[in-house]
Design goal:
Layout: H1 2-9, H2 13-18, H3 21-47
């Protein structure tokens, strides 16, 4: 998660680690939703 947060949101790993648990959980959930959407798009493109 910290790797994705760094590359997609420019959030340094130590900043991610320092987040409060609820904020880290929210960011993790948002990342998982985005990754799933990207996966669906790749699958959709492959089917064409």
């Amino acid at each position: 998660m910290a790797y994705y947060a760094l590359h997609e949101f420019s959030l340094m790993p130590w900043d991610f680690a320092a987040l409060e648990t609820d904020k880290k959980a929210a960011l993790t959930a948002m990342i998982l939703v985005r990754v799933e959407e990207e996966r669906r798009e790749r699958t959709k493109i492959k089917k064409k």
